[in-house]
Amino acid sequence: MQIVHSGIILLILMLLAICVMPIILLTVCLIMYTIISELKRF
Q: What are the entry keywords (predicted)?
């Protein structure tokens, strides 16, 4: 029973990671883009 419980937790964590990863990547790309554009201005 404990194995099933940990498996469910792992599944939820994986789903969260899959959902959150693209958002994190997008925000990082946006930050990098803004920094590059700011640097180009100088």
A: Membrane, Plasmid, Transmembrane, Transmembrane helix
Rounded Cα–Cα distance for residues 38 and 42 (Å): 7
Token pair of 26, please? 């997008």
CA distance 8 to 31: 34
Q: Which residue has the tokens 């937790």?
A: 9
Tally the C-alpha atoms within 13 A of residue 23's C-alpha that lie toward its C-beta: 5
Tally of domains in the chain: 1
For residue 27, what are the domain limits? 1-42
User: pLDDT tens across 19-40, in order?
Assistant: 999 999 999 999 999 999 999 9
